[in-house]
Design a protein that fits this description.
By secondary structure, the chain is an alpha/beta fold. It contains 11 helices and 6 strands. The protein has a 6-stranded mixed β-sheet with strand order 2-1-3-4-5-6, sandwiched between helices. Strand 1, helix 2 and strand 2 form a beta-alpha-beta unit. The longest helix has 19 residues. It is elongated and about 80 Å long.
Length: 233
């Protein structure tokens, strides 16, 4: 059992190296760093289209990727999108489409957008079912380029949201619950008190002025509870 982790790590490294070699250093899900943080990477074929204008309107910073980007749009290292417009749907070329889809699903979070227009509304269901059955990729219907631009802007915003900060010093959950019993103290203040006092015992020895640095208005009440005789609590 001791060799399982190293073997898995080695296999993952081999897959990483092979994926880089076989895709000519394109931006794929195994990329160690996405070079366009905070922007949408756009395939150069959209450079002179209304799609770029719509990204600007949706307030989604973007950059035209002139190299052979694997997908139509890439929001972060693992999130790639393919857009099927009228031409792709009305006169579908399955060989070319399968090639695009195979590259897209190499990303960890692939998605496909299909344009629903008067010319495509009778065709999208059949194509969607075929793609979903074969690739198991989510397909989103859009009615115009602005819909797609707004969705990409939302993905970009979500990718930039910071993760909640973990509790400092791996604080004991029971200690946090105990401090939350103080009047006017929620989880955030409880963590701050434990961080300042170091422990429940440390909090019990804090002065009122020290408590006030964290608790503001109810420091006096908490200080009284900590230091008053039991019959007065």
């Amino acid at each position: 059992l001791g060799i399982t982790a190293p073997v898995c790590a080695y296999a993952q490294k081999r897959r990483y190296n092979n994926s880089i070699e076989t895709t000519n250093d394109r931006i794929i899900m195994y990329a160690a760093r996405f070079p366009y943080d905070g922007r949408v990477a756009v395939n150069h074929k959209f450079e002179s289209t209304v799609m770029v204008q719509m990204l600007t309107k949706a307030k989604a910073p973007h950059v035209i990727e002139r190299a052979d980007l694997d997908a139509d749009f890439v929001v972060c290292a693992g999130c790639a999108c393919i857009f099927l417009g009228e031409a792709d749907i009305v006169d579908v070329n399955w060989k070319a489409l399968n090639s695009r889809l195979k590259k897209c699903i190499e990303y960890s979070r692939p998605s496909i957008f299909m344009a629903v227009t008067p010319n495509t509304k009778d065709l999208v269901e059949e194509i969607r079912n075929a793609i979903t059955f074969k690739y198991r990729v989510p397909i989103i219907f859009v009615h115009n380029p602005l819909d797609l631009a707004m969705y990409l802007a939302g993905l970009l915003k979500a990718s930039q949201q910071s993760l909640p900060k973990p509790m400092k010093r791996n604080m004991d959950e029971d200690a946090v619950k105990a401090v939350k019993c103080f009047p006017g103290v929620g989880e955030k203040r409880a963590v701050q008190l434990l961080d300042k006092g170091g422990s429940l015992r440390g909090i019990s020895t804090m002065t009122e002025s020290a408590l006030a640095e964290v608790l503001k208005g109810n420091a006096e009440q908490v200080h009284h509870l900590l230091h008053a005789p039991l019959d007065e609590v």
